[in-house]
Amino acid sequence: MSDEPQQQKPPGPGPEREPREGPEPEPAPEPERTPEPGAAPAADATLAGEPRPATEPGTAREPGSAPAGPGEPAPAREPGAGPETRPTAAAAAATAPEAAGDGGSHAGHGAGAGAGSAAGAGAGARAGRTGFRRFLPTWRMVLGGVLLIVLLLSGGFATAYLLVGIPAANEHAVRQGNVYLYSDGTQLATDGDVNRQNVKLDRVPEHVQRAVLSAEDRDFYTESAVDPQAMLRGAWNTATGKGKQSGSTITQQYVKNYYLAQDQTLSRKAKEFIIAIKLDRETSKNEILEGYLNTSYFGRRAYGIQAAAHAYYRKNAEDLTTAEGAYLAALLNAPGYYDIATHPENKARALARWNYVLDGMVDEGWLSRSERSRMEFPTPAEGRPSSGMSGQRGYLVEAVKQYLSAHNIIGEDALEAGGHRITTTIDRKRQDAFVDAVDEQLMSKLDKKDREVDRYVRAGGASIDPKTGEVVALYGGIDYTEQYVNNATRRDYQVGSTFKPFVLAAAVDTGAETLDGRTITPNARYDGTSGRTVQARSGSTGYKPENEDERSYGQLSVAEATDKSVNAVYAQMAQDVGPAAVRRTAVGLGLPEDTPDLTPDPSVALGVATASVLDMTEAYATLANHGEHREPVLVTKIIKGERELDLPERVTERAISREAADTTTSVLKGVVEKGTGTAARSAGRPAAGKTGTAEEDRAAWFAGYTPDLATVVAVMGQDSETGEQKKLYGATGMARINGGGYPAQIWGQYTAAALKGSPAEGFDLKLMDGANDPDPGDPGDAFEEAGETEGPWEDTGDSGDTEDPGETEETGGTDGPGDTAPPTGSEPPPTDDGKGSGGGDTGGTDGGTDGGTDTGGSTGGDTGGSGGTGGDTGGTVGPGGTDGGADGGGGTDTAGAGTAATSTATAGAAA
After folding, report:
1. Which of 157, 366, 609, 658 could lock onto 598 through a cystine, CB 3.0 to 4.6 A?
2. Cβ proximity of 46 and 52 under 8 Å
3. Of the given ranges (252-261, 430-439, 505-514, 752-761), which has the lowest mean pLDDT?
4. What is the per-residue burial (b if ≥16 Cβ within 10 Å, else e) of 211-220?
């Protein structure tokens, strides 16, 4: 074999390489290497990007090597030496044995040329891949992987398409009912009747069809039967806990409703995808739309557009207007959520959805703007629940359904498909006790024939075990078939002064101070002047809250302001704490983040927010549980077929410090013992609570708790025909209804019955530092009472010992609250109309029953003359009346005829 270089045709399979464009990078200096005499040149295994050796002018380059770049200098060579090579360490190691074994000539010609061309091509593909980039796949690998995945998916889809056929209709048309059980396993209620009527598409007006398309699938007639992007988005939202998310077209929804089950599984989604495509190819769009309209659930147990038209508007589908059709279309998104007859608090959201549907019709050219502008929201008729849901059953079932949907346990569609056996937390005996208390204390006093206002009276209640969070009783109204709205869960009535404890809890929890730098404690003093402007640290806020009946109190402690429910004090305190901090505390205790009118301004202290009775019970249960919030639980077990469904874990979080909760409890004990809530003493147990009255007496509240049970009761006014909230002035023949009257009386009777047979435990309280210390500021006139300068405190230290409600520590007056009979159901609640009835929420009837009951005070009003009623610790009296003693004073401070004894008179009908 000749040793001449092969210049005409380089060895190897590939063509001759083109010279590189541009200058070659300068190589790093290396010592020259000279082959041993007689040895052939080493194979060119230089990596791409590394300068190749040059030859002397006029000599041929190694086969497979690239020519020198423009201007590339050729390094000097020793005389007689072969071509210079600078292989990398790896290349040298690979080629050295070959060179040694072959003696040089064969390696120089065959291996050198072949390896050179192969290394140049392979190494070029990895040019510059150093560090972590060596581990990244090349674009060829990525492309190959993608093509492989597409091939597998295509094959899988083709196989599924051939194997999955369009099934027969599912069992939903002959669905089973759900069974609801009390906590002891006895049956509470069943539901199973289905309201369904199929109609042909030509009986559904075109404007109603278009309203449905606008709400659910505007491209139904022009686009594919499936929307993969929306499906992936919906699946991701469902998997990440954002709730059941629909990513389906109308065709997919119809397939789910008619052919498949409602469970949210990947296999069901895959089947839905395949069947929808097949159905779209084999069935017309009009047939699919007709099927969808006849199988969709609209709420109120109505399946299909015809049943929905009757359930909401008492008419046939062909008679629906555009506005009515748009509302029914809006319901498809969330029937229970947008039914404003059931949830009037959601009217704003329902209105927004209705507008969305109509605006979409305008955008699609299906409705003129002029016609759209003239439309008014079509208020639906009240629902007609099943007769099997009469009494409290319907309210309880509805509350359970809301709970399951809100916690993403079972969706509305799946629940309506039936077949579930649901065990609730409702205690049958306590539920019956709640109904009895409302009937005896309130409903028996109504005269709906002779007093029109009595027709407006409604009641709602809820009771929670604070240690477990379980809802043990729920009072929704007189009868679900008569009053459809659940008064325990609705969120459209102001909570009034039952909100004030949240302000105090926030103050203690955050260590807030008054404007002049005093720590806010139960004994901190404030100005209780009605109409006083709330002051911020930056100056006046301009807000001037008035006390109930515009009564002013001067200087008084936070504890006294709580007993008397003084608006001026609590509005200023909310500003001192920071309205945003107050709002955060309320939400932490249990109020929903989106509670209507839960605004971060001083007015929040007066209870303008419209939380539900159940929401408020949750918050008060947190106070009873020493500041630890337990999410309310309504269901303990669900079985469908042979399978038990998973329930969410019970969550416990600390909302506020124990000191903040317990200090608040300590103050609220005073409200029950000697403030506006003394009627609650009929429970016969240590209790804490707060009264409240909504604006213009549209609702009256009592929220309270023992260590074992938290319960809230509200009496509301509403016109059943129009849904309008009504004032309760004159109801049951009383001038007004306030929280210290019927709500507190109901609370007391129910709590006594609910806890009957269990030991009466006292509160184990751990108070804030300085809770019992007198305020360091000037006490003012309100504290110049018989040498007593401290606040009205009984709880001391952390021992948890409490005083018996019937005993007192101080002397100089009558027996404590235990020896003073609270108002009975037959006695009218107190009023403060200035005509012989004073004493606020807790005063008795004429003659002064339940007068001043503060520890050591005299029975204010107990000897009241003609019509004088005793206040909490005194009050306005009639001729010859004697003013009640103060906190341990026991003075008489005789008043003349018609003179108001005002030493510590409480506010009338505290807010």
Report:
1. 609
2. yes
3. 252-261
4. bbbbbbbbeb
- Degrees, nearest 5: CA angle 307-309-315: 110
Greatest pairwise CA separation for the chain in angstroms? 144
Q: Note whether 713 and 488 are within 8 A (CB).
A: no
| Whole-number Å distance between alpha carbons of 512 and 521 | 9
- In whole angstroms, give the CA distance from residue 547 to residue 566: 6
Which residue, among 899, 848, 894, 890, has the nearest Cα to 872 in the 3D structure? 848
The angle at the Cα of 672, spanning 666 to 674, to the nearest 5 degrees, equals: 95
Residues 6+ apart with CB under 8 A from 746: 437, 438, 441, 442, 459, 461, 702, 713
Q: Can you spell out the DSSP letters for 189-211?
A: EEE---EE----GGGS-HHHHHH
Rounded (to 5) percent helix, strand, coil in the chain:
40, 10, 50
User: Angle formed by the axes of helices 742-754 and 428-441, to 10°?
Assistant: 150
**Contact of 695 with 492, CB cutoff 8 Å:** no
Dihedral through CA 794, CA 795, CA 801, CA 806, nearest 10? 30
Residue 831 has pLDDT above 50, yes or no: no
Backbone φ/ψ region at 767: left (φ over 0), alpha (ψ -120 to 50), beta = beta
Cross-strand partners of 876: 900
Amino acid letter, 404: L
Q: Which of 216, 548, 659, 810 is catalytic?
A: 216
The answer to whether 863 and 848 have CB atoms below 8 angstroms apart is: yes
**Percent above pLDDT 90 for the chain:** 49
The rounded distance, in Å, linking the Cα atoms of 614 and 609 is 14
For the question of residue 497 being annotated catalytic, the response is: yes
Q: Which residues of 687-714 are buried (b: 16+ CB within 10 A; e: fewer)?
A: bbbbbbbbeebbbbbbbbbbbbbbbbbb
Q: Measured between alpha carbons, how far is 548 from 832 in angstroms, rounded to an integer?
A: 10
List of residues 6+ apart from 909 with CB closer than 8 A: 548, 549, 693, 736, 738, 740, 830, 831, 832, 840, 841
Give the active site residue among 497, 565, 612, 903. Answer: 497
**What's residue 639's pLDDT?**
93
- Select the more confidently predicted residue: 236 or 678: 678
Q: CA–CA distance from 664 to each of 169, 200, 796, 809 (Å)?
A: 59, 63, 14, 22
The yes-or-no answer on residue 390 being catalytic is no
**Assessment of whether the complete model's pTM goes beyond 0.70:** no
Place of tokens 């209640």: 461
Q: Mapped to the 3 state alphabet, what secondary structure does 851-872 carry? A: CCCCCCCCCCCCCCCCCCCCCC
CA 701 – CA 711 distance, rounded (Å): 11
pLDDT computed for residue 334 by the predictor: 86
* CA-closest candidate to residue 500, choices 611, 664, 744: 664
3-state DSSP assignment of residue 427:
coil
Question: Which amino acid does the sequence have at 58?
Answer: G
Q: At what angle do helices 285-295 and 305-313 cross, to 10 degrees?
A: 40
Most confident of 185-189, 278-282, 483-487, 575-579: 575-579
Question: What CA–CA distance (Å, rounded) separates 791 from 558?
Answer: 9
pLDDT, average across residues 266-284: 72
Amino acid at 417: A
Contacts of 887 by beta carbon, 8 Å cutoff, 6+ apart: 785, 786, 788, 792, 810, 854, 855, 856, 857, 873, 904
What is the identity of the amino acid at 121? A
Beta bridge partners of 693: 700
Question: Which of these, 665, 660, 666, 688, lies nearest to 768 by C-alpha position?
Answer: 660
Name the 3-class secondary structure at 138. coil
pLDDT at 790: 35
Closest CA to 527 of 463, 579, 570: 570
